[in-house]
Amino acid sequence: MPATIIGRSADVSFGIPNSQTGMIIQSNSAAASSDAVELKNKDGDITSVVFRNKKVTYSVEGAFTTFSGAVGTAVAVSNGSKFGLSGSSFINEVTRTKSADDFERVSFTAVVYDANTPFS
Question: Which end of the chain is more exposed for a tag (fewer CB within 10 A), N or C?
Fold first, then answer.
């Protein structure tokens, strides 16, 4: 549960407000990206650009409890920044790590694709 912030910094966020079934989240991040196609004139100057294949990649890491997500399965992204995208999201990588001196960890990345893709 995120901490209560007192003082002038009430506009900032502290802690992780989201939960994830099957793990105790320790960190998460979201990164928006796209392909840029540039049009250059005869002098090599960029005159136009098109941004396509927009997507948001989420990375989540935490202590394993019962996480069972598999690569290629749909996952719901709630309360996270989708950077304006509203398409479907799928897990594309899962890692489980065991260590002699730490809790068992699980991490996964999921990609939210632009709603304009044929499968969204």
Answer: N
**Model confidence, pTM:** 0.74
pLDDT in tens, 58-72: 999 999 999 988 999
CA dist 69 and 40 (Å) reads 44
Instruction: Give the Å distances, CA to CA, from 45 to 10, 36, 37, 59.
Output: 45, 15, 13, 36
Question: For the chain, which residues make up each domain, given as ranges?
Answer: 23-113
What confidence tens digit (pLDDT) does each residue in 83-116 have?
878 778 899 999 999 999 999 999 999 998 887 6
> What's the CA gap between 24 and 5, in Å, rounded?
22
Torsion angle, alpha carbons of 69, 72, 75, 79, to 10? 110
